[in-house]
Amino acid sequence: MAAELTDLQLMHELEPVAEKYINRHLSMTKDWNPHDYIPWSDGKNYYALGGQDWEPGQSQLSDVAKVAMVQNLVTEDNLPSYHREIATYMGMDGAWGNWVNRWTTEENRHGIALRDYLVVTRAVDPVELELLRVEQVTRGFSPGQNRQGDERAENLFDSIMYVTFQELATRISHRNTGKACNDPIADKLLARVSHDENLHMIFYRDLSEAGLELSPTLAMQALYKILKDFKMPGFVTPGFRRKALVIALGGVYDPRIHLEDVVMPVLKKWRIFERDDLTGEADRLRNELALVIKDLEDSCEKFEAAKHRRLEREAKTGRSISAEDVLATAGTLTLSRR
After folding, report:
1. Which residues are annotated as part of the binding site?
2. What is the pTM of this model?
3. Which residues line the annotated binding site for Fe cation?
4. Of 200, 238, 240, 277, which is least packed with CB atoms within 10 Å of its CB?
């Protein structure tokens, strides 16, 4: 059996693959302008310019759509941390650096467009939105934060495999949020954002697959480590657990979606449970991964039962989680409304 590659060797071997997939990406993607997807004619001045500050009755979005849109936005707001992380593991030279900058350029549009839409349409409190942005970016993000203890991302595989699942999950979350908005403009905007996320996922997914061929044990170590305790980058957002609950109950992103639309399609694409080149440690980790999948299935069933009970209770009592209560989670942070 050939010796496993070091991280530097892996980066060297994968650089021509990265360049190939960058060229493919550039041939598939289409640049777009965030301002084209904003209903500017719906906007009006806020207090500082002699207008009116936000009031809850101005929002036309459902509670689920508001929470999901804000969570999606503040996740996108943390782009400086994401740029730093992928630059750390990919470097800024050659094809790797070209991808880091191109990916960052495309991702930056998402936050611009989502914020403009929410502020112009007065869908949510812009002051709370700014509080959340400041808190989110201050907290930052590292892929290692999505695992227990002090374990951090250690190599290129940890980075590109994590982002493969994260990009696919983000694509689905944006797409389902667009549908939940019940607004053709929001739906069109989030479909555009989802398309970008899908192309980013394809880059990372196929790059990871090429690495899996080169160094299966290192790849399986990263894959198991990521999926056994996967969390989206937005989990550092204040009040994340309550927001995730609203989003899950609303069918935007829940355990079943995570398993069937995110985890399993990628594992099937990589043929994880059909490969004949996984031996020793890699094969052992594949068996452990099968147990992780079983645990995810159990979690789906438990969540679905709990969701059914909760919705029945809310129907009887007429009380549900308010979006305003969920979004007002900035704690002791203060920011003047004037």
Report:
1. 76, 107, 110, 167, 197, 200
2. 0.89
3. 76, 107, 110, 167, 197, 200
4. 277
